[in-house]
Structures are given as C-alpha cells and as structure tokens.
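Why does residue order matter? Because the sequence determines the fold. Keep that principle in mind as you read this record.
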Amino acid sequence: MNVLARSARAAAKPLAMARFYATEAPAASEALRLTFVVPHKAIYKATDVQQVNLAATSGDMGILANHVPTIEQLNPGVVEVVESAEITKKFFVSGGFATINPDNSLNINAVEACPLEEFSLERVQSGLAEAQRLLSSAATEKEKAAAKVEVEVYEAIQSALSK
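Structure:
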C-alpha cells in the first residue's frame, strides 16, 4: 500500500457511531392477510385471518398481525390457520417457505399441502412401516436418501394426527 493512501486513511475522520432505531410500521389492519399456495392452486388468496401457526426449521411459530418480517423454511408438518375464534383449519405441508412481510401479509409457498382431516392414521402407519422396510433394505445411497425422506414425512404426518 502506498504512503499517500495510508496517510489519507489515517487522517480521515472516523464516521460518527450513532444508534438508529427502527421506524414504526404504518398502522395496518389488525388482521393478518394470508396467501397460501401450492404449485397447482391457491388455498388462500389475500384472505384476512387471525393467526397462522407453522413448523419452520427454526422452530414452531405462531404468526399474528404486526409480526416481525422474516423468511422461514418450512419443515414437513402442520400449518394451522385460525380464521376466526370459531374456525380453524389444519393442513399438512411437505415443505416450502413462509414470507412474513412488513404490511401484515404472510405468503406461504408449499410444495404440497393437504387438509389434515383427509389423512387416515391407519394408512399413515402402514405407509410408515413400508417406508421403514424400504429404508432398511435400500442398497444404494440414493435409495436410502429417498426412503429416509419418506420415513420423515410419514413420521411428521403421524405426529400431526396424534396431537
């Protein structure tokens, strides 16, 4: 480094260290605006709801209006939509992303989603047993990885149904 650059850097005044605070979000409705989509359809499209509970990789979270903006990767698990005090709907998602925006909107993009009441515990248990059998008998790493994902999804469905 040349002498001029070094001298200029040493002589420059350091930037004032100041703390800044987040500005308040504009007043919005008290409802959370949910858009919940899978590749082939929209389950909710800009619908006002009270709360959404989801299983993210960072942990289970409940999202209300005025939630801090963030992006979360979804684990296989339940997305619970509380539309009102009387109406709650549960969906099993295999994965995806949830984006919480500063304008009280929540976008959930899931790979697959199915209403939880469409699952049969007996069929899930038999599917899990078959997936575990495939995992134990898998010959290649590719077969093991596919069987492991299948086991994890069946276990997540079974856990959701037994709650």
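The radius of gyration is 23 Å.
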